[in-house]
Input
Amino acid sequence: MTRDGGGPPAGLLVEAVHGMARPLFVLDRDWRFSYVNPAGARLLGRSVDQLQGRVVWAEFPEAVGGPFQAAYEQVAATSEPASFEAWFEPLAAWFQVDAFRTEAGIVVTYDDVTGRRRTEQARSEAIAAREAEAERAAQAAHRAELAGRHLMLLGDISQAMTSTLDTDRAAQRFAELVVPLLGDWCLVTVVEAGRRRDVGRAHRDPALVDAVHAYADLRVETNQTSAPVPTALREGRPVVLQQLTDAQVRRMTTPAARAALTPLRVSAAATFPLLARGELFGALTLVNAPERGPFTDAELRTAEIASRRAALALDNARLATAQGRIAERLQRSLLSAPVQPDNLQLAVRYRAATQDVAIGGDWYDAFLQPDGSTVLTIGDVMGHDLEAAAAMAQLKNLMRAIAYDRQEEPASVMRRVDLAVVGLDVSALATVLVARIEQDEDDRAAGLRRLRWASAGHPMPMLLQPDGKVVDLEAPVGPPLGIGWQGPRTDGIATIPPGSTLLLFTDGLFEGRTGDLDEGRARLAAAVADLAGEPLERLCDGLLAAQLVDGAEDDVALLAVRAHPGDAPRPTDAGPRSVPAGRPWPEGA
Output
């Protein structure tokens, strides 16, 4: 296989076709089917023989000019994975398609999701019908002059508040949207961990905004239990006071709060609880001055609808933020610290994509086998979500257990892991590289180590030699894990002299979404050469800084190994070695 997009030898694919467990095909650079499995052929209404070697656009001309061609060509041009659903008229079916570029070619997996789409369409139509009925009822209740503005407000609330995951910012946007249409001024309250805060604040008169802030800063501490917000939070119902009297204000506030309210001239107030998914976590308070007077029925109805929509948007932001924090903690927990053998120094880095969720399927691992060899793994599971992280965790643990169980060469480990992934129904499609650093008696006497590695569609390692030269290590590349490949996988072998540094990484380190594979590796090699004289930790930090100037467009995992001389003590800057509990350190590890 070559890095320019060529596919695996056709003969090997034919040998493995009956071992494939998923609908899948591979397109070479000429858009020919270099491989298609029986499940994939059946789903397309053809046989393997009818597709093998045929040009996809000639075989399926209806796809030309449509989303399939656009996605495949974009993957080929940018190396950015594509995931989409599209209707294919000749087969009268919706397909869920995942496509990505590997050194074996453009790999495409797909499923018929017509049934699900029809179910979702029916559900969407039912939901749309219910929402349309609610909107019709609201329109009938509004006066003609205000009906359009109120409806536009509800749409603006949904759009403005769902565009941010910051609850404070979302609450402020909500406050600015409802004033002055629904009230002269307002406060939006959120409750977090039992603590109440007025985070959204707005007034129709810019000259009175400071007065709103002064009152809001006092309100949380000075509201009496009979005030609208405590009542709404306690009872979960709207509280409307159409004609506030001085006596009511005195019962609900303290002298300091009443002084802050004086310039705001309160005449009417209405508070609506923010309730979503059965949880009450805040309130919207609208206030009018005497000139505006009591709230109209239309204003109260719109405010209640708006509070429900805002509550759902705020709750989504809270859940997304919490999920992001959990996801990041999960990702970090799955990326364990590497082993530190004597005279081998390991450093690892992980950087989540800045433009996506902060969790994905990239991982690294390093551990010792019973014979003292150091095993290194690095991989990239398709996807950037909790499902990808869960699949990554399963794949990482399978790899670790199988590699530890038998001291086999990496290619054999890869074969057994692939069979386990398919046999145990682990939902994962991943590029993986497994490497083992070995040292027999002759190598130890010569002060050398040997690297043996195998790749399943994963970028090849780089070796920074002691003289500063950067070498791209080369070996045959097999298909990604997760397709049940039963064909051969081949190890690469290289010598690691003392003073050299081995680098394993995922493609996010060098492959921009609009970049070129070879150019990206060349830039990475140049950055490695520039940092050749740096300690290992600084080298890793420097590579991330140089390669990710504009942030990580994709998840990035980096594993670096520096081979210090075996006949000298472990360098101080390498840090302490890790000693496995319960057994002595292997001699010469």
